[in-house]
């Protein structure tokens, strides 16, 4: 499954009310580490069906990042049952991200 794009307007429906856990990547087009982690998240989204991988551009959607205290990017949160259950910051190698996802699920 490819990554999905989430906005301030679609956050509740696509993340909080999702039947599956959701990994949400807060990013911006000008962020170097965000560009590095983007392809890794795409690979993971194509390999895993146990989690939805979503992205939110913080420049276009300021409300949700503020609500969750996002101060640096990339910041990645995992949501389960409408609650944020895990957070990590910075670009990580694929294996490390996969382990982090497994530990959160």
UniProtKB/TrEMBL annotation:
**Signal peptide annotation:** none
Disulfide connectivity for this sequence is 31-34
Which residues of this protein are annotated with the site description Deprotonates C-terminal active site Cys? 25
For this protein, the record's SUPFAM superfamilies field holds: Thioredoxin-like (SSF52833)
The segment(s) forming the Thioredoxin domain are: 1-105
Source superkingdom? Bacteria
Recorded protein name is: Thioredoxin
Species the sequence originates in: Kordiimonas sediminis
Organism phylogeny:
Bacteria, Pseudomonadati, Pseudomonadota, Alphaproteobacteria, Kordiimonadales
Per the record, the gene is trxA
């Amino acid at each position: 499954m490819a990554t999905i794009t989430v906005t301030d307007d679609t956050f509740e429906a696509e993340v909080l009310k999702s039947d599956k856990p959701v990994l949400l990547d807060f990013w911006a087009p000008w962020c170097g580490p965000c560009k590095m982690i983007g392809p890794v998240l795409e690979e993971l989204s194509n390999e895993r069906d146990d989690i939805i991988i979503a992205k939110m551009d913080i420049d276009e959607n300021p409300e949700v990042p503020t609500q969750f205290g996002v101060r640096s990017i990339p910041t990645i949160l995992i949501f389960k049952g409408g609650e944020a259950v895990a957070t990590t910051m910075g670009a990580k190698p694929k294996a490390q991200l996969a382990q982090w996802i497994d530990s959160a699920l």
